[in-house]
UniProtKB/TrEMBL annotation:
It comes from Nocardia aurantia. PANTHER family: HTH-TYPE TRANSCRIPTIONAL REGULATOR RUTR (PTHR30055), HTH-TYPE TRANSCRIPTIONAL REPRESSOR RV1474C (PTHR30055:SF229). GO terms for molecular function: DNA-binding transcription factor activity; transcription cis-regulatory region binding. Keywords: DNA-binding, Transcription, Transcription regulation. Coiled coil: none annotated. One of its GO terms (biological process) is negative regulation of DNA-templated transcription. This is HTH-type transcriptional regulator BetI.
Amino acid sequence: MPRVSDEHLERRRQQILDAARVCFTRKGFHETSMQDVFAEAGLSAGAVYRYFRSKNEIIAALVGETTTSVRAALAEVVARDPLPLPAEVVTVVTEAVVRFSGADGPVRLAPQAWALALTNPEVGDSVRGLLLAMRGLWHIYVERMRDVGWLPADVDTDAVTKVILGILPGFILQHLLIGDTDPDTFARGIALLLPDYRHPAQQPEGTG
């Protein structure tokens, strides 16, 4: 028999994950059965189990995809030069959340994954890794804020980072569950709470 290419195997694996994401966003983790995934993927049980041993293993694999695009948006904006204002960073990230939180959007799985992580070690490891990756990106931004003088030189960057990380889950929950929270609202709130930061070159004469 001809050898199956790695590309084919990856396409099949992604086919299963895409089908599972559709099922999970529609019915939730607990109400979705493996039979639902088989049917949505159009594959036999044997074909799916070749890639994933259980539903929890599929969930763990999907966790990394839930906010991939959001992480990419955050990584891009915190690296901009000159350093963007906090309201701009929040706008970019929350707009990415909105783009990927539609009917079958991957961001819709995030709250389910957070809840499951409390009792499922396999999923918990994946969620913690995701949160730490996001926290690392925010930490880069906080250090850059310190370096341009927006924060004191002796600021506790770890403490500030942990607080800022809470912004994103808060937006996701309010956007998905309440529905009256949008990127513009969050950006206005951040701008009102935080000082009017300026780069040194932007400081009015006689200040700074």
